[in-house]
């Protein structure tokens, strides 16, 4: 087993390095420094040359690059097959990925290919005396588990974004770029074209989310209060399942166990009781603000700041005040 921690680099729609990959490079650097290890960035795609330098600036020592048209779009066969071939060749001790929908697919399939385990959707990762462990929640966020990997095999850990701070980039840092050819992996699926979803809501990428629930009383009230506040704070708007099921808001806005898992910097829950299934999707948010007229609502148990009162009175005042202050 090589003394190396790999970070699988993800890109934004514009081709830049995704924030979660920078966060993971920072964490990998910290773990590597504490354990006498090295950091490798695994960069797969087409036309991705300059990402290696970006990876060095965020802490990578080595960039393993496979730049091939066949990897222009994510496919399980292409990405997992390539990553597995390289991991078998270089034997990293740990592979870190984000935990968005593509990387959930990737990390599980990669672990299967490497005949190892995966700690999915983790919020922390540790290495002690060469043993890798990861922290993740289960049972709707009510149980926190620490999973420990058996030594001698590559550990695969997918990590929720914003679990770690984004490090400061150092453009003067450099490293070694190792260019590899696409291994002969079967490509059963071919992406013919990609069309952006009409009116798609990117809750998973939003740094601020304002969510509303049944306490708002009606869809008219939801749209009167929630999107304007979301716009004032520069965020996306979400919803509890109760109001998605009631047809007030489309499913892509739903946060929770059967909706999106989010961990923004700021999550505002307005007229949401805080059922465990809702908490499962948002309790790792950095700051949680709850507005609810019931002081005993369970949402207050996870809230950083709680406001007990009527959303109909508080939200318009809050929106106005924020607009005034942000000009
Ligand atoms: P309620 O529980 O009815 O809460 C409304 C809240 O609004 C109350 O706390 C009330 O005090 C407050 N309120 C009322 N009037 C006002 C006012 N004027 N001002 C301020 N506050 C007010 N739920 C999800 O959200 N996401 C999921 O993914 C999800 N998945 C589920 C999966 C399963 C298998 C199951 C069984 C359930 C799931 N649920 C999910 C449903 C979940 O259990 C709750 O029923 C749901 O979250 C409740 O939504 P709510 O908080 O909007 O409504």
Automatic annotation (TrEMBL):
Biological process annotations from GO: fatty acid beta-oxidation using acyl-CoA dehydrogenase
SMART domains the record matches: ETF
Cofactor comment: Binds 1 FAD per dimer.
MF terms (GO), sorted A to Z: electron transfer activity; flavin adenine dinucleotide binding
UniProt keyword list: Electron transport, FAD, Flavoprotein, Transport
CDD domains per record: ETF_alpha
Keyword Flavoprotein: yes
Family per similarity comment: Belongs to the ETF alpha-subunit/FixB family.
Protein name, as recorded: Electron transfer flavoprotein alpha subunit
Gene source species: Roseiflexus castenholzii (strain DSM 13941 / HLO8)
Lineage: Bacteria, Bacillati, Chloroflexota, Chloroflexia, Chloroflexales
């Amino acid at each position: 087993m090589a003394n190396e921690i790999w970070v699988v680099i993800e890109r934004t729609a514009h081709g830049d390095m995704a924030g979660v990959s920078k966060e993971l490079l920072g964490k990998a650097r910290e773990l590597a420094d504490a354990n006498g290890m090295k950091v490798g960035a695994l960069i797969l795609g087409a036309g991705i040359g300059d990402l290696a330098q970006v990876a060095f600036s965020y802490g990578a020592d080595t960039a393993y690059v496979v730049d091939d048209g066949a990897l222009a779009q994510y496919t399980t066969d292409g990405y997992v097959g390539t990553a597995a071939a390289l991991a078998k060749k270089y034997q990293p001790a740990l592979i870190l990925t984000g935990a968005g929908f593509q990387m959930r697919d990737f990390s599980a399939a990669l672990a299967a290919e490497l005949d190892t385990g995966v700690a999915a959707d983790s919020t922390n990762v540790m290495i002690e005396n060469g043993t890798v462990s990861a922290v993740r929640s289960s049972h709707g966020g009510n149980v926190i588990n620490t999973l420990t990997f058996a030594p001698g095999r590559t550990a695969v850990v997918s990590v929720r974004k914003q679990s770690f701070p984004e490090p400061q980039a150092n453009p003067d840092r450099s490293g070694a770029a190792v260019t590899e050819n696409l291994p002969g992996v079967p490509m059963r699926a071919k992406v013919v074209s990609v069309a952006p979803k009409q009116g798609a809501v990117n809750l998973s990428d939003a740094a601020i989310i304002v969510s509303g629930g049944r306490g708002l009383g009606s869809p008219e009230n939801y749209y009167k209060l929630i999107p304007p506040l979301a716009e004032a704070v520069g965020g996306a708007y979400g919803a509890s399942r109760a109001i998605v099921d009631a047809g007030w808001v489309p499913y892509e806005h739903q946060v929770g166990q059967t909706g999106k898992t989010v961990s923004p910097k700021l999550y505002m829950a307005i007229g949401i009781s805080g059922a465990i299934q809702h908490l499962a999707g948002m309790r790792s948010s950095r700051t949680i603000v709850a507005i609810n007229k019931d002081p005993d609502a369970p949402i207050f148990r996870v809230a950083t700041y709680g406001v007990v009162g009527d959303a109909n009175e508080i939200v318009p005042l809050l929106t106005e005040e924020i607009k005034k202050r942000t000009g």
